[in-house]
Design goal:
Elements: H1 2-29, H2 52-55, H3 59-72, E1 75-80, E2 83-88, H4 91-100, H5 112-116, H6 131-145, H7 147-151, H8 154-174, H9 184-201, H10 207-227, H11 235-241, H12 243-275, H13 299-305, E3 308-310, E4 314-316, H14 320-351, H15 353-371, H16 388-400, E5 416-418, E6 421-423, E7 428-431, H17 433-437, H18 486-503, E8 504-508, E9 519-521, E10 525-527, E11 533-537
Parallel strand pairs: 2-7
Antiparallel strand pairs: 1-2, 3-4, 5-6, 8-11, 9-10
Helix pairs in contact: 8-9, 9-10, 9-14, 10-12, 11-12, 12-14, 14-16, 14-18
Length: about 550
């Protein structure tokens, strides 16, 4: 290992020397060219860039970035290797970049290491702004996120809710520290993953299969986030020095593909049975009694129908690798973000029992008036539209605790100006989501959990969560690349928060104060001290 790092150090020194002399020659050749004014930032070290990437990790990087913003201003320039990264921490500048100049800031930054690592299958999140991205995004919005399509997944949500409340009830009966009980957020993560697997593949698979897929996805994510960062520095060299990491990553991807393809092929077979191979008149009637675990619609169904234009072979269907990449993106995009937001919201309701009681009063009033049977039944998806305080609670949770403190990075398609500074073409640009949503100039008592701010007369009344009019909070991003799953995520949060409060009274464990200020960076920003709570059943009947 020491020899490897010595070789890497020698390579870096040699590269630094070459870059230095190349820079001297280049600067003399273009000496008469006007110097660009780049966003300010801390001093850099050749090849490495800013030392904060070396001396900090996790939340420490975020805290350091916050201090650098205080010193250098809302537009901060950082270097990772030779690459410039710009971080925007002002809501007006974010609006100018993402909305007013939306098309110009809609690309994704190119990473040389992506091609070297074989990660070039296009998805919604990594595609550049253009026809392919529009095709993928339009398909997701129309065929998954549209309210009419979302209603088709209602049986899956009901089944997941029943299993989630059953697990929470048994967990409470067995004791929160019982062997194998796990934390509350782990129970949330399983439930959200179970739901997304069903929506993706059209099948309510058994718990063992869900956990196997979740483990494969998580192993790949953890490995990628911890072991592949080195490829951001001189990938042509590091991919050779760390070839073992590449092989391990490829093996994990094959493991995931081996789990996905039987589910995809089953859906393909079902589609052909119903519509025929050419998608025309039914070739054969569907099975007389499909399993109750099979859904009538799935994300995979829509992907099997997609056709993309290929320069080499004209219009074609998606390859297996492309299908796997899009399915993996679907599962990643809505699991940790939603389960993290759900944990933060439930933690705030435990911490603030008066808010929880007010929410429960609203739930009881709506369910009682709709069912005529008293408040002993679960909350339906139709009930959610009649609960303004529930919506305020969810919005306040997303404002106070956005699951991601940054969005997926953007990149300008051409050099652009922002607040008097030049943002060069291809620069990695990100936005400080958490800082914008807790800005004291925008919000009253920004560090407090106050759902009432989103009701009539509050400082958040009528807030535009999409950021189209103005940006005051942006948990889903803003502009052309805003998260297409915004509607899916808010529905899931409202549905599960309402039913969890209807089913249980959430109270603090004796001697276990809930900490809603401590944060830890995993894939999302989670509670440093995971939520523990005492759950008192309210007698609500939860059924699939």
């Amino acid at each position: 290992m020491e020899l490897t790092w010595l070789l890497l150090l020698a390579t870096l020194i040699l590269s630094t020397t070459l870059i230095f002399f190349h820079g001297k020659i280049g600067s003399s050749a273009t000496g008469n060219k006007k110097r660009r004014r780049l966003p300010p930032g801390p001093a850099t070290v050749p090849v490495i860039g800013n030392l904060l990437w070396v001396t900090n990790s996790g939340m420490d990087i975020m805290r350091t970035v916050r201090r650098l913003h205080a010193r250098h201003g809302p537009l901060l320039g950082l270097r990772m290797g030779s690459r410039l990264e710009v971080i925007v921490a002002d809501r007006r500048l974010a609006h100018a970049a993402l909305v007013e100049s939306g098309a110009a800031m809609a690309d994704r930054p190119e990473f040389v290491s992506r091609g070297l690592l074989g990660l070039d299958s296009a998805t919604i999140s990594n595609s550049n702004y253009g026809p392919l991205w529009r095709l993928f995004r339009r398909n997701f919005v129309a065929e998954v996120a549209h309210p009419a399509r979302l209603r088709q997944f209602a049986p899956a949500r009901a089944a997941v809710l029943a299993e989630l409340t059953d697990k929470l009830r048994r967990r409470q009966e067995d004791g929160t520290d019982a062997a194998g009980a796990g934390t509350i957020v782990q129970t949330f993560q399983y439930a959200m993953f179970f739901l997304l697997v069903a929506m993706c593949f059209g099948e309510l698979v058994d718990e063992r299969a869900v956990r196997d897929i979740a483990a494969a996805q998580r192993d790949l994510l953890i490995y990628s986030s911890k072991k592949l960062r080195v490829f951001a520095f001189l990938p042509a060299v590091t991919t050779r020095l760390f070839a073992g990491r590449m092989k391990a990553m490829l093996a994990m991807r094959q493991r995931l593909k081996g789990m996905f393809m039987p589910l995809i092929d089953a859906r393909r077979k079902r589609k052909n049975l119903v519509h025929g191979d050419d998608g025309g008149v039914a070739a054969a009637p569907p099975p007389p009694a499909e399993k109750v675990t099979t859904l009538p619609h799935s994300y995979v169904d829509t992907l099997l129908d997609l056709r993309i234009n290929d320069d080499n072979c004209g219009e074609r269907a998606l390859t297996d690798d492309e299908l796997v990449a899009l399915c993996s993106e679907f599962l990643n995009g809505g699991t940790d973000t939603t389960s993290t937001a759900l944990q933060w919201i439930m933690a705030e309701l435990v911490k603030n029992p008066a808010i929880q009681d007010k929410l429960h009063d609203e739930i009881e009033a709506v369910v009682t008036s709709e069912s005529g049977k008293g408040g002993s039944h679960q909350v339906s998806e139709e009930d959610l539209h009649k609960m303004p305080y529930l919506k305020a609670v969810v919005l306040e949770g997303l404002r106070r605790h956005p699951p991601g403190h940054f969005v997926l990075p953007h990149a300008p398609a051409e050099d652009m100006e922002l607040s008097g500074y030049t943002i060069p073409k291809g620069t990695l640009v990100n936005f400080a989501v958490a800082d914008i949503s807790t800005d004291e100039k925008t919000w009253e008592r920004p560090r407090e959990f106050v759902p009432e701010r989103f009701l009539e007369g509050g400082d958040g009344e009528g807030v535009d969560i999409t950021g189209t009019r103005e940006i005051r909070m942006m948990p889903f991003g803003a502009g052309r690349r805003i998260c297409p799953g915004l509607g899916v995520a808010t529905l899931h949060l409202e549905f599960f928060v309402a039913n969890l409060v209807a089913a249980f009274e959430w109270r603090e464990e004796e001697g276990e104060e809930v900490d809603v200020d401590g944060e830890k960076l995993e894939f999302t920003v989670v509670m440093e001290k995971p939520l523990r709570a005492r759950l008192l059943p309210r007698g609500v009947v939860i059924t699939a």
